[in-house]
Specification:
Elements lengths: L1 H23 L25 E3 L2 H5 L8 E4 L3 E2 L25 E10 L2 E2 L5 E4 L2 E6 L2 E3 L5 E17 L13 E7 L2 E3 L2 E3 L2 E11 L3 E7 L2 E3 L2 E3 L2 E2 L2 E7 L2 E7 L2 E3 L6 E2 L2 E2 L3 E5 L4 E2 L1
Parallel strand pairs: 1-2, 2-4, 3-4, 4-9, 5-9, 7-10, 8-11, 9-12, 9-13, 10-14, 11-15, 12-16, 13-17, 13-18, 14-19, 15-20, 16-21, 17-22, 18-23, 19-24
Antiparallel strand pairs: 6-7
Length: about 280
């Protein structure tokens, strides 16, 4: 009996060591790509596009979600947490709160994007939703292109069982959409992300989380790459967890073309739950 216990302990130690070795293994980009480089050519912005050169102007996009915008300089967001542009409020209103315009980074970099739990909760129906990234939620016609994120830190942890501002019911759920560039939707091209995308959700009923280095869920993605680590954890009676280097989950009819990821990503969930 003692031999069996010792053998089992040795196997567990070996497995743990192997997992640590894999997790610590360096992840490298293809030799033809250098960090901070874009994969496709960049055309001049539209003549009627609004120039953006600082954080204040970048955040002001939320006041006109159908506008055309382009960056004229790199922007450092290290002075505070970022509130993502756009979210889905269709349950309550016919007025769109998704980003529906055009954002052209013009090959510029946004550094130190940090999205935390502040201002990311959007109660809707029987669930609490969170849309996180540079953009939170974009429509199927929105265009986001030619921008890179360096040092992004998206760290969302929703435990709706421990929030005083949420009225609990027996069927309340939580859903997180986390992406470096956009949490949900859009047409994303010639973009990249470095840093971390991490999302955790806990619910007393249904718990679902999607996370990707470029997009959390759904969209057309082209000429993009990601080196950000991506991790998701979902815990609830019915829990699902989806993690991907580029996109956590995509629907039929949408495409991913000429993209790659060189990142560590994982999805964790409890017993009798689904992780992908």
């Amino acid at each position: 009996m003692k031999k069996k216990i010792l053998s089992l302990a040795l196997i567990l130690v070996m497995v743990f060591a192997l997992v640590r070795a894999v997790a610590a293994a360096p992840v490298s980009l293809p030799s033809t790509v250098q960090p901070g480089r874009f994969l496709a050519a960049i055309e001049p912005p539209a003549s009627d596009s609004i120039p953006i050169s600082n954080r204040t102007e970048l955040a002001a996009m939320s006041k006109d979600l159908s506008g055309k915008y382009h960056l004229t300089a790199d922007i450092d967001l290290s002075d505070g947490a970022w509130v993502p542009i756009g979210y889905d409020n269709s349950y309550y209103s016919r007025t769109s709160t998704k980003f529906e315009g055009i954002f052209d980074g013009q090959g510029h970099i946004i550094r130190n994007l940090a999205v935390v739990n502040i201002n990311v909760y959007k109660p809707m129906g029987w669930s609490v939703y969170s849309y996180t990234g540079l953009f939170g939620c974009a429509s199927s016609t929105a265009i986001i292109k030619n921008v890179g994120l360096i040092g992004a830190n998206i760290n969302i942890d929703i435990d709706i069982n421990n929030r005083d501002d949420i009225v609990l019911t027996t069927s309340l759920g939580s859903v997180i959409y986390s992406g470096g560039i956009c949490g949900y939707g859009g047409n994303i091209s010639n973009c990249f992300t470095t840093g971390t995308v991490s999302s955790i959700t806990t619910s007393n009923y249904r718990s679902t989380v999607y996370a990707g280095g470029i997009s959390g869920v759904y969209g057309n993605i082209s000429n993009c790459y990601n080196t950000a680590s991506v991790s998701v954890t979902s815990d609830g009676i019915y829990a699902e967890a989806y993690a991907g280097g580029l996109c956590g989950y995509n629907f039929a009819g949408f495409s991913v073309a000429n993209c790659f990821t060189a990142s560590l990503c994982y999805a964790l969930k409890g017993l009798e739950k689904e992780a992908y």
